Amino acid sequence: MPAPAGGKYDVVGIIDVTSIKEVTPTPAPSPTPPSEPSSTRYREDGTCPLGYVDYGVPLQCVTPEYMEYCKTNPCPICLAENTMIDTPSGAVQVQQLQRGAMVWTVNGLGERIPGIVLEMKRTLVPSTHQIVHLILGDGRELLVSPGHPTVDGRTISNLVSGDVYDGASVVSTQRVIYGEKATYDILPSGDTGFYWADGILIGSTLR
Known about the structure:
Layout lengths: L52 E4 L3 E3 L1 H9 L11 E2 L6 E2 L8 E5 L5 E13 L5 E7 L4 E4 L19 E2 L2 E10 L4 E7 L6 E3 L2 E3 L5
Antiparallel strand pairs: 1-2, 3-4, 5-6, 6-11, 7-8, 7-10, 9-10, 12-13
């Protein structure tokens, strides 16, 4: 290419292409969930208390920070690993169940009937995730996330000592650090989506 009239090209420098290094972009850090709040129930007029926003069933009302986190991340509201689920062939660990497996559920008349697992979900949780150690007066116990639905329209976090749940008094609902990598839930077929976890009848987050 000829130089422009009356001028010369300035030599800026020569690039040694062998010295160019490929730069791998640093991945964005994974979002950190805010401190897990206690979910609270709707007020009698169907609205949330001051400082909470409507998450919907099953969590009902949560803090705005937790709502934002849940828009792009799965929120752990399920069962602890190794929870035993009642099935017609005996109790089975929740993480072993797959779609099509048979479990016991409840129909609209409150009768215990066999159902089919329509969906099975595994949700990763942070190391700080807390679960509720629910203890009933008849000796039944369950480790479950606070936001998991009960069968009477509440969440586990709404249960307090002295309440009656699944035919027994609530002795304790202490929160403990979970320590495992994931929680689990299933959705049985039928009218309700209810099933027995460690002998306690609960709802499903997948309904």
